[in-house]
UniProtKB/TrEMBL annotation:
This is Fatty acid desaturase domain-containing protein. The keyword Ligase does not apply. The keyword Transmembrane applies. The chain crosses the membrane at residues 105-125, 220-240, 260-283. Residues 130-307 form the Fatty acid desaturase domain. Keywords: Membrane, Transmembrane, Transmembrane helix. PANTHER family: FATTY ACID DESATURASE DOMAIN-CONTAINING PROTEIN-RELATED, ORF.
């Protein structure tokens, strides 16, 4: 597969729209040597944007709620019309009444999935453990954890998935499903919303990448190790430094009570079930989150590292914004693999995955590779004082 030309057949309609618009832009600029007719490129983009809005707008006839992430609804309907009429449509109608935003119907499917597979499987492991079941359970949870974490990202930002009349369910379900996926209770909220989004990979961010050489394995291992072993202590201390006692005590409390629960289950209930249901998913997710965070924040803009736009990376299969002149848009790669390619210093491959925008369009592969490499350089403390002046003067 050549990442520079491969078009993944599993991309959503929205992703294909974004990608085609960007590629058309590259094409026009190349043909006209950068002299784009004023109306030309904005026409294509605004058509694509209104089409995408329609696909996401429940009131629009084009609207299509996502029911599954693995299969496209259009394909299912085409292949099995009876399934659509008797199962999918009634299900969709019912699920639409439960969720806050109609675009979140897919999350009901996932909640149903977790409560009919992960939860009973874990209960069975604690009552009748077998090694084969333990391993299979762990593999299943590994398969689920990516989409689960995306769902929880929505949950922690929006304060729930179901309508507010079902708030009790919104509040309770993560206490059951979180530990089974490797999350500790409420930590995602305190770490991600209350700390990571506030600091935005800046110098005070506990998982900031800027002090590391971001294509060096040794730096990467230090980065993962620090989070893995010390975050339970560092996060409460961070909130204390910011004078936020409320968050400090809660972040500490939930982390420690989660660890205590694991300790008790391991020592007094069933260590083998605890290993496969809680410990392995926890260790795995913590490492996975840091590999992903590294990939997401490895390419930092040298001129304005504090700008969310200049240092942003957009992946074509999770497109949320694009076409910013200095942002980086990649396709055929995810954050995890960005990390892997960086640590192998495989800038050539990354250059192939980049969808050029703005002035990147005139650059050849070597120039793009060099541009990417320049963005992985470690910042010294002097750099940081210069580039993040507000953060070194005012303690927020
Ligand atoms: Zn977020």
């Amino acid at each position: 597969m050549d990442p520079a030309t491969f078009k993944d057949p599993n991309l959503t309609v929205q992703d294909v729209l974004v990608l085609d618009t960007l590629l058309a832009d590259v094409d026009v600029r190349k043909r006209t040597n950068g002299q784009v007719p004023a109306n030309m490129d904005s026409d294509g983009a605004s058509n694509a944007i209104s089409k995408m809005k329609a696909l996401n707008d429940p009131g629009d006839p084009e609207f299509e709620p996502t029911l599954f992430v693995t299969w496209d609804l259009r394909d299912l309907v085409r292949l099995y019309p009876w399934l659509d009429k008797w199962v999918l449509q009634p299900y969709r109608e019912c699920a639409r009444k439960l969720v806050r935003v109609e675009t979140d119907v897919v999350m009901i499917t996932h909640l149903l999935l977790y409560f009919t597979t992960s939860v009973p499987s874990a209960i069975l492991l604690f009552s009748h453990f077998s090694w084969i079941h333990g391993v299979l359970h762990w593999i299943m949870q590994t398969y689920y954890v990516g989409t689960y974490t995306l769902m929880m990202h929505q949950h922690i930002h929006m304060g729930g998935i179901l309508k507010s009349r079902y708030q009790w369910f919104n509040t309770i379900f993560p206490y059951i499903t979180d530990p089974l996926m490797g999350h500790t209770w409420n930590s995602y909220y305190y770490h991600h919303v209350k700390h990571h989004h506030v600091e935005g990979n800046g110098p005070d961010d506990l998982s900031s990448t800027i002090r590391y050489q971001r294509d060096e394995l040794r730096d990467f291992l230090c980065y993962v190790g620090r989070f893995f072993f010390f975050i339970w202590l560092e996060l409460p201390l961070y909130f204390l430094r910011k004078g936020n006692m409320h968050c400090a005590s809660r972040a500490g409390f939930w982390e420690i009570s989660n660890m205590a629960t694991i300790f008790i289950l391991w020592n007094y209930v069933n260590w083998r079930a605890t290993l496969f249901c809680l410990v392995l998913p926890l260790a795995q997710l913590r490492i996975g989150l840091m590999i992903g965070n590294w990939g997401q924040h490895a390419l930092v803009d040298d001129i304005d590292p504090d700008s969310d736009f200049r240092s942003s990376i957009t992946l074509i299969d999770v497109a949320d914004r694009y076409a910013n002149e200095h942002a980086l848009v990649f396709r055929n790669i995810d954050y995890m693999m960005i990390t892997v390619r960086l640590l192998r210093k495989d800038y050539k491959y990354l250059a192939k995955c980049l969808v050029p925008i703005g002035n990147q369009i005139g650059m050849d592969e070597d120039e793009i590779a060099k541009m990417l490499q320049a963005k992985t350089r470690r910042f010294t403390e002097a750099d940081i004082r210069r580039k993040f002046p507000q953060k070194s003067q005012v303690q927020r």
